[in-house]
Structures are given as structure tokens and as C-alpha cells.
Amino acid sequence: MRLLEGKTALVFGVANKHSLAWAIAQCLWEAGADVGLSYAGDKLERRVRPLADELGARFVEPCDVTDDGQIEVVFDRAAQVFGHLDILVHAIAYAERDDLNGLYLDTSRAGFHTAMDISVYSLVALSRAARPLMSRGGAILTLTYYGAEKVIPHYNVMGAAKAALEASVRYLAADLGPDGIRVNAISAGPVKTLSAGAFMGFRDMLHHVGECAPLRRSISATEVGKSALYLLSDLGSGVTGETLHVDAGYHILGLTRPTG
Ligand code: NAP
What we know:
Blueprint: E1 8-12, H1 20-30, E2 34-39, H2 45-54, E3 60-62, H3 68-82, E4 87-90, H4 109-130, E5 138-144, H5 156-176, E6 181-188, H6 194-197, H7 202-212, H8 221-232, E7 243-246
Parallel strand pairs: 1-2, 1-4, 2-3, 4-5, 5-6, 6-7
NADP nicotinamide-adenine-dinucleotide phosphate binds next to helix 1, strand 5 and helix 6.
């Protein structure tokens, strides 16, 4: 019997085959889950449909998470297709490019709101919408980054957003725990994806982590998927409100210096 046989999962945030959401979706599917995918908007459909077909997904729906109406439609549709939901994956973040260059000090009010809305509030909104479908318990996972805890050059407003996201994981875990719904985060090390690749200095960051992390390498998207499987399956049944670092150990270092 596979770990997620008979379980249903809804994964938000697949943009293409490099997305962390895709690696997670594949791991859940290989473990036996019935996986549905949601993507940001119609322009992504061309890339997401073929991926959904690889999983035989019955559910492939667009959803812009800034729009409450679209969230309602997507969960109504999920109720029709799946009946109940066991797993929700939130792998969504966005900040205006201008707010990722220069000083955090110069973050615009509008840019701050956008980053918080798409990268943080969406977890709250999706969790609330998923709750009625998780009447027999469930597991929710989001993705964060070390820039929530320490200053990372250029991460700026996204660092503030990820800190708020990690706090939201704890508050949601407390709210939903009595319903048997667990809420956790994975703090992933850098992986080259569409949004990460557009981040200034990303290549240097990847190189630096590969040289300095205790495991002397960066991580793969599949490693995020495997840890997601742990947190989202019965293997993680006693874990909630947690942020698990999947970063080759980089976060334990006090002094990062390449060692030859
Ligand atoms: P990705 O493939 O670009 O995924 C980001 C997703 O967020 C995209 O599908 C994007 O769609 C979606 N999104 C943005 N605005 C949205 C909206 N309004 N409504 C719905 N979806 C929206 O990049 P990724 O690296 O896998 O990112 C997934 C998560 O992992 C993010 O939370 C990211 O911060 C986190 N993370 C990534 C890394 C890394 O190094 N890659 C490390 C730690 C944490 P569009 O393409 O249409 O904008």
C-alpha cells in the first residue's frame, strides 16, 4: 500500500516543469495521491496541461489568488471533482521586480501590499476555502525561504513576506489543529525555477550555497518533494506549525566561508 493511496491533493503554483510545486505534485502522485493542479492564469495553461496529463490529473484549473471569486470557483470545482480534500500545497509568491532591487528601505506601499497579498494572505484564503473539504482532517504545506530569518541581499520585501508567511503557518496550525488539519512549511534552499532565476544574484547565491552548506551542494526540487511527502503523509502525523529546512544544512551556519 502506497503512502497516499486513496488521498486527494490540490497543488497551487505550477508554472512549468521546474516549479517546486511540480516536484511536489510528482512525489505525491508517485505515492498514490489523486493530484489536481491549479495555476496562476490562462497564459500558463499551455505549459501546465501537458504536466497535468502526466499525472492523469482530473482537476486542472486556473486561479489568480488575489481574486476571492476565483478561489471560490476553484474550491467549488474541487468539491465536485474530489468530494473531499486531504492535502493542500501552496507554492505561490510574487513581488514587484523594483522592490527586489535596491534598498528594502525604498519598498513602495503598493509593492509591499502586492507581495503580502500574493505571497502570504493567499495561504490564509486557500486554507479557509479548503477547510470545509477537509472534514476528516488534512495537511497543508507552504514554501518559504531563509530570507525570512536573516538578511539576504535583494530578497527585501520578500523576506518580510516570508516572515509573515511563517508566522501565518503557526497561527493557522493553532486554528486548524482541533479539526485534525496540520499546517507546515518547508524552507527550501535555492533551486533554479522561473521566479528564482529572475532574482538578482541568484547564480552567485546558488554557487555560494553549494560551496558552503554542510552537505557541500545545493538541493534539488525532488528533495523538496520528498520532504513534502513526509510532512503531508502519515509519516508527519505528529508535526504541525513547523518550518522544516530543506537546504543542505545551510541555515545552521553562523559563519559561511568556503572550505577547500
Ligand atoms: P515558480 O515555478 O515560478 O512558482 C511560483 C508560482 O507562483 C508560479 O506558478 C506563479 O505564477 C505563481 N503565482 C504568482 N502570482 C500568482 C497569483 N496571483 N495567483 C496564483 N499564482 C501566482 O517558482 P518556485 O521557485 O517553484 O516558487 C514556489 C514557491 O517556492 C514560492 O513560494 C517561492 O518563494 C518558494 N521558494 C522557492 C525557492 C527557490 O529557490 N526556487 C526557495 C525557497 C522558497 P506566474 O508564473 O504566472 O507568476
